[in-house]
Design brief:
With 232 residues, this protein is α/β, with parallel strands linked by helices. The protein has eight helices and twelve strands. The strands form three sheets. It has a five-stranded parallel sheet with strand order 2-1-3-4-5, with helices on both faces. A four-stranded antiparallel sheet has the order 6-7-8-9, covered by helices on one side.
């Protein structure tokens, strides 16, 4: 996922960013409400982790502004206050879930995975495309029951393909969701990582599931064909 973390406490923001990145997610940070509204409306985030107590505009206001702008990314609100009124205010402003500080990072990850499933027509905890199986919680991948070892970035890219199987995904869209706001490299990085994935999930199994759609991008076939003799 590409996640926007909205947190004004530098230490907490840094911990969240590091932890989420270690799980393979791309993370951007906003330290005040106005910046959060701008970033949330200008960029396509898969989820938003939003603190309630912020400079300029509190988390309730940020949440409301994002929903008014038609941004429906799942929002997980964080707060040190555990009053029923605060939880109700956040949910009524458009938040999808609420987590009280201090919290377990493992619980935050689990809640984010659950929020991501809510936005999909089906909500399996383990994702499958044909005989390719991906488990977001354990970061395990297998094809035909054979385990496949992937790097964090390879896993994140494959997860996005699996969640959008059958769709043509442009290089720009892949960069927006798999790499973070600070990425300044060339879009060819997508080609490089697609090549890495093909070497691991396709070629050893005689498959051709990750196809190039010329002039448009890449697509993960929902019913993979046999591998061609050669493909870049």
């Amino acid at each position: 996922m590409r996640v926007l973390v909205v947190e004004d406490e530098v230490k907490m923001a840094s911990l969240l960013k590091r932890g989420l990145e270690e799980e393979g997610h791309a993370v951007d940070i906003a330290s005040d409400g106005l910046t959060a509204v701008w970033m949330g409306t200008e960029h396509p985030y898969d989820a938003v982790v939003l603190d309630v107590m912020l400079p300029d505009m509190d988390g309730f206001g940020v949440c409301k502004k994002l929903r008014e702008a038609g941004r429906w990314s799942p929002i997980l609100m964080l707060t040190a206050r555990d009053g029923v009124e605060d939880r109700v205010a956040g949910l009524d402003a458009g938040a999808d879930d609420y987590l009280t500080k201090p919290f377990s990072f493992a619980e935050l990850l689990a809640r984010l995975r659950a929020l991501l499933r809510r936005g999909e027509p089906a909500r399996p905890t383990v994702l499958t495309v044909d005989d390719l199986v991906l488990d977001p919680a354990t970061h395990r991948v297998a094809r035909g029951g054979v385990p496949i070892q992937l790097t964090r970035k390879e896993f994140t890219l494959l997860e996005y393909f699996v969640r959008h199987a059958g769709e043509v995904l442009s290089r720009t869209r892949l960069i927006e969701h798999v790499w973070d706001f600070a990425f300044e490299g060339d879009s060819n990085v997508v080609d490089v990582y697609v090549g890495y994935l093909r070497q691991k999930i396709d070629r050893p199994f005689g498959m051709d599931s990750l196809e190039t759609v010329r002039g448009a991008g890449y697509r993960l076939r929902e019913e993979p064909a046999g591998a061609p003799a050669d493909q870049d």
